[in-house]
Amino acid sequence: MDEMPEVLPLPDRKPADGAVARRLIDAQFPQWSGLEIRSVDAQGWDNRTFRLGDELLVRLPTAEEYALAVEKEHRWLPVLARAVPLEIPEPVGRGVPDENFAHDWSVYRWIGGEPVDRGGVDDLVTFAVELADFLAALQQVDPTDGPAPGLHNWFRGGPLSTYDGWARNSLKTLEGVIRTELAEEIWDRALRTPWDGRLVWFHGDIAAGNLLTKGGALSAVIDFGTCGVGDPACDLAIAWTMLDRESRAAFRDRLAVDDATWLRGQGWALWKALVVCAGSVRDGHGLPADASYVLDQILAAHENQP
After folding, report:
1. Buried b (16+ CB within 10 A) or exposed e, 189-223
2. What digits encode the pLDDT tens for the residues 118-173?
3. pLDDT class for 4, splitting at 50, 70, 90?
């Protein structure tokens, strides 16, 4: 694992536009110069994404730190694709910087489907089981030479302590707004819960926006920029960000998650929810609905423990 900095850097983001994508394609992949480029509706934070014709897409990293994932994805996605039961991105072209765009970048095959939301899934229990099967298959891939946690994936798969400062600052901001005493107790438990050190593959950002459905059923998992080998607990955050009590139980049972890993997974979900809620409060807004749902689910689970 890379040496962990005391404070994770804030990326100097410079999102590119369609004109940059057009120039890069025309110069480096002239075989696709006749294909139309258009922006996708839902843009991510790490990359700007553009459709390239009907079958391809272009991903342009928004900062140097996010571009670190390009080499990793081109090396490992073809390996992972052979082992998992759902469609994942297929790289078909690797671009290089030019005088006006500073990062490596990628062309992928387009994967159709709709981003997941709780209301758009026909059967949440079936969805949870299928997602668990995907993660179980991913964890069975040989981790030899796989990328350890580092800046390329913001230390996903490493210790939760990486984010301890962010979590505690967020708890201070949220005093009097949420039940911070219980939230801090849960966070502390997650930090103290050991990992057995067995390296396995993880995705690193199993979230609604990175899961696609067709006809209400899970069909694809996208955006592997945070993938690596390490502690898979980070992939369990989805149990609290999207699933309900019944589907959460089915997810855990199917994936055979032990108590320690489950607690660390709660910690990953709790950290992100605290940071999002604290940012909203500092900006003078109320608690955002999605992050509030996560907090409610985690706090209620601990209150209901025998």
Report:
1. ebbebebeeebbbbbbbbbeebbbbeeeebbbbbb
2. 777 889 999 999 999 999 999 999 999 999 999 999 999 999 999 999 999 999 99
3. very low
Assess if residue 39 is contained within a domain. Answer: yes
pTM over 0.90: yes
Position 73 pLDDT exceeds 80: yes
Is the confidence at residue 114, as pLDDT, over 70?
yes
Residues 121 and 254 reside in one and the same domain: yes
What residues make up the domain containing 87?
A: 18-111
Q: Give the chain as a DSSP string.
A: -PPPPSSPPPP------HHHHHHHHHHH-GGGTTS-EEE-SS--SSEEEEEETTTEEEEEESSHHHHTHHHHHHHHHHHHHTT-SSB---EEEEE--BTTB-S-EEEEE----EE--GGG-S-HHHHHHHHHHHHHHHHTS--TTPPPSSGGGTTTTS-GGGGHHHHHHHHHHTBTTB-HHHHHHHHHHHHHS------EEE-S---GGGEEEETTEEEEE---TT-EEE-GGGGGTHHHHT--HHHHHHHHHHHT--HHHHHHHHHHHHHHHHHHHHHHHHTT----HHHHHHHHHHHHHHHT--
Q: Are residues 45 and 146 in the same domain?
A: no
The yes-or-no verdict on residue 306 having pLDDT over 70 is no
Domain end call among 61, 91, 111: 111
- As to burial, measured by CB atoms within 10 angstroms (0-12 exposed, 13-18 middle, 19+ buried), residue 12 is exposed
